[in-house]
Design brief:
about 130 residues; mainly alpha; Cytochrome Bc1 Complex, Chain D, domain 2; extended; metal-binding; Cytochrome_c_Oxidase_Subunit; metal ion binding
Length: about 130
């Protein structure tokens, strides 16, 4: 293949992929917070609790998503959906979300208020190690 044909093939490929790129909403796309809440509570609340402040009780060992940056949440959820990020704890739930769901869920979690969390006493060995650091 000549250099000109390779160049034309590359241009054609880029032009044909434009509609696909435009079809995927980004993190700043308008969000439906009511749908985001419904989907988050259906797909995410078992581990992240109904308000995104981590769970399950009593120790809330799963991370808090409430109040995190919308773009960060979008990227993490989108990466779960597209399998760029694999997490066995999600059991493929991210893959079930539509592109609009990713926008809505990330916007809803970002709009929530992160709780202060529960205070726990550190193990004395951990405190000593912290002092050393």
């Amino acid at each position: 293949m000549t250099e000109r044909k390779r160049w034309l093939a590359g241009c054609l490929s880029a032009l044909l992929s434009l509609p696909l790129a435009a079809a995927v909403p980004g993190p700043d796309a308008p969000a439906d917070l009511a749908r985001g809440k419904a989907m988050a509570q259906k797909m995410c609340s078992r581990c992240h609790d109904d308000d995104g402040n981590g769970g399950p009780r009593p120790n809330r060992s799963y991370p808090k998503l409430a109040g995190l940056d919308r773009e960060y949440l979008y990227k993490q959820i989108y990466d779960l959906k597209t399998q760029r990020r694999r997490n066995p704890a999600t059991n493929g739930r991210g893959e079930e979300l539509s592109a609009a769901d990713v926008v809505n869920v990330s916007a809803w979690f970002a709009a929530q208020r992160m709780s202060a969390g529960e205070q726990t006493l550190a193990d004395p060995r951990q405190r000593e190690r912290g002092r050393q650091l």
